[in-house]
Amino acid sequence: MKKTRGKSLKAKKYVSFMVVPHNSDKVIKWKIANVYSKLFILIALFMIIVLAFSGYLAVTLRENKELRKAQDELYTFISEQRNIVEKNLSVISEVENLDNITKEKIDEFALEVKSLTQNYIDKETKTLTVSRSSALSNPAVSFVGKIAELKAILNFLEQTDIKEDELFSELSEIREDLREYLNHLPIIWPTEGIIESGYGNRLHPVYRKFMEHTGVDIGGKTGNSIYSAAAGTVTAAGKNGGYGYCVDIDHGNGLVTRYAHCSKIMVRKWQKVKAGEEIAKVGNTGVTTSPHLHFEIRLYDRPIDPTVFIGKKP
Length: 314
Known about the structure:
- About 40% of the residues lie in helices and about 25% in strands.
- The protein is of the alpha+beta class.
- Among the domains are: about 85-185, no CATH class; about 195-310, Glucose Permease (Domain IIA), CATH 2.70.70.10.
- Strands 3, 6, 7, 8, 9, 10, 11, 12, 13 and 14 form a ten-stranded antiparallel beta sheet that branches. A two-stranded antiparallel sheet has the order 1-2. Strands 4-5 form a two-stranded antiparallel ribbon.
- Helix 1 packs parallel to helix 3, helix 2 (about 105-120) packs across helix 3 (about 140-165) and helix 3 (about 140-165) packs across helix 4 (about 170-185).
- The longest helix is centred in the first third of the chain and has 60 residues, at about 35-95.
- Mean pLDDT is about 75; it is low at about 1-10, about 100 and about 115-140.
């Protein structure tokens, strides 16, 4: 028997791909040499990564666009409200033109207002007063400062009733306007405790993925009182999905506050509430890991940073 001369050829290895149509018995088959299959897999993986990144980029760009729109609306609202505050402050400044008010009284007024304002503004800003010129550079901080100043003036004007000082009787109407204006701005700290989780993007403690946090979480014990941040009308009071037991209050001018994860609700829908009125109790209902108050402020149904109104500390 003759031996086969030469080296035997190695059998080529292939990777097969088959497509089986539903409406046909014919099977479509492709064969790719093993050496090219790895390259094909690498290209496929690269395309999957590119498509996934493109999808993520598209979602991120859309979210950023919505965020910019919400920020523009917030800045517009703050600008409008700041103009109202400026108008009220300008009326107060006309006190200096009243003939029956002495120079000493004016100085006393200015000194006390300045002192009260300085003690109110958030210590973390490292500034005791907020100048009017800062409005263009940081409207949110400027707005908080204006509210603090206006609140200080209102407190001082209310003290004039106790003193029965006739020199300030001309300001009684302005005092009522200021009180009504402030009563409908959500500037009251809603419960005892400090902010444990701020507004914005964060790692969700339950779902373990990055999600937009539409409010602030204020830590507390179950049963602690929750207060309305401003006067308004209750538009929702009951269970609300992941929010658990939840209360929504409409304060007018497009402003709505939300109080979530309550253990007990003490108001009903369409009830009128006063600023600082107890409306619920802190709890652990809904999607949460511990007792706390999730507090939101929504402007024309868009969430905004609550610290613009309530500050960062009680």
